[in-house]
Amino acid sequence: MKDLRRYLALKYIQYLVLSSSNAVSTLLGLLGSAYTMILLQSAKVSSKSTAVLISSLAQADLLVFLSLVSDVVLGSFGAGVSPTASALARILLTANAHVSCVLLSCVAFEAYLITFLPSESRPLRTVRNARLISRVIWTLVAAECALFLVDDHLRASGASAPSRGPLGLLFQFSSAAAAPLRSLSYTLGILLRITNVYIYYKIFFSMSPR
């Protein structure tokens, strides 16, 4: 449907084209996601793997809404808010961005398969596989952001953080893993942008009249 294609174009611009989020793109993204979630409940939209991925993409913007609510709630308490609590809003935005970028790349890859390998890829492009992929993406990003949150808490607490026992090992692991994971996330973000540009470049020229 045209509305879903417009929504995907909006999300690609928001997460894979713009260097940073802004109030206008965030608001448009939230409105687009709300409209898309309503649209996907319609009987006119067939239950296909692409629709499952787009639905998960729209649901990811709930994290942005929760982050905005968190900012409002934390702001009402003033300066007494702990650094860990204020870091939660940033972690929610990070989770939203990472989930959205990977899901958009999955949609692009599926479009590539539909265009160039429609018959061969049909057994892979199932609703069940799309739901499994969405769950795996959400689980991995949740684990990543949990590490970031623990590392932020460790940095904020400083010497008061436990250094022995299972909890101490958890803090040490989080501190050691957070820095390379942030670097890896940045590198993967660049690779996803390049890959998406290449995929849609190939699709565009394959469909252009010769």
Automatic annotation (TrEMBL):
The keyword Glycoprotein applies. Residues 32-140 form the G-protein coupled receptors family 1 profile domain. PROSITE patterns: G_PROTEIN_RECEP_F1_2 (PS50262). It is a multi-pass membrane protein. GO terms for cellular component: plasma membrane. GO terms for biological process: phospholipase C-activating G protein-coupled receptor signaling pathway; positive regulation of Rho protein signal transduction. The chain crosses the membrane at residues 12-40, 52-77, 97-117, 183-201. InterPro entries: GPCR_Rhodpsn, GPCR_Rhodpsn_7TM. It is found in: Membrane. It holds the Pfam family 7tm_1. One of its GO terms (molecular function) is G protein-coupled receptor activity. Keywords: G-protein coupled receptor, Glycoprotein, Membrane, Receptor, Transducer, Transmembrane, Transmembrane helix. This is LPAR6 protein. It comes from Mohoua ochrocephala. The lineage of its organism: Eukaryota, Metazoa, Chordata, Craniata, Vertebrata. The gene is Lpar6_2.
